[in-house]
Amino acid sequence: MDDPEERFTALYDRHYRAVLGYALLRAEHGVAEDVCSETFLVAWRRLGELPEPVLPWLLGVARNLLAKQRDSRGRRQALVDRIAALSTERDTVAWDVADHVVDRTTALAALATLPEQDVEAMALASWHGLPPEQAATVMGCSTRTYNVRLHRARKRLSRALRAEPAGGPAGTARRPRAVEHGQRFAEEA
Asked: What is the DSSP letter of 25?
């Protein structure tokens, strides 16, 4: 068969049920159909490069797409869980934007008092959701060192959040304790 459309149609007809069956064993119906469609889209794009036999290759593509779907759902659920953990009953009853702006401003001010290495360690864990092994690779240290840095960074952030805000009583500006001792903390990490 020289015609790419005929070749692809024959490939699709021959292997669609097997790829869909593979995906159905691992995901719900809608996701399985999407994965099957994406698998054949990849096959169409790489039609000239397909190995023989092609079925194992198609199932490998489907497996990778299913893993991406799981990762995506996991990240989405983790985000929903984090948002739910940050929300309180008060938020659902009467959500006041001003309260959250003040909370955000306080949190950003506390983060600004921390060494850059602390902020990076927390961002890799919280914002990017990296496991300690991967975050340690990003920071160029061992997993154990990263875990220690993260623990210390969280403690320093907690202290900075508890510190009296700048412009405390009688309008006097006061630096949080984390800034006063920031150099010592940076040397510890």
From this structure: T
Sign of CA dihedral 39, 41, 42, 47: positive
DSSP 128-173: S---HHHHHHHHTS-HHHHHHHHHHHHHHHHHHHHSPPTT-GGG--
Separation in Å, CA 81 to CA 76, 84, 93, 132: 9, 5, 19, 20
Comma-separated ranges of CATH 1.10.10.10 domains in the chain: 96-188
Q: 150: buried, middle or exposed (CB in 10 Å: 19+, 13-18, 0-12)?
A: buried
Lowest mean pLDDT among 57-61, 106-110, 152-156, 175-179: 175-179
Whole-model pTM? 0.43
Q: Which two tokens stand for residue 182?
A: 């920031």
Answer yes or no: CATH 1.10.10.10 is held by domain 96-188. yes
Residue 53 tokens read as: 């036999």
The CATH number that domain 4-84 falls under is 1.10.1740.10
Rounded Cα distance between 139 and 117, Å, is 9
Tens digits of per-residue pLDDT, 138-182? 888 999 999 999 999 999 988 888 875 554 444 333 344 444 344
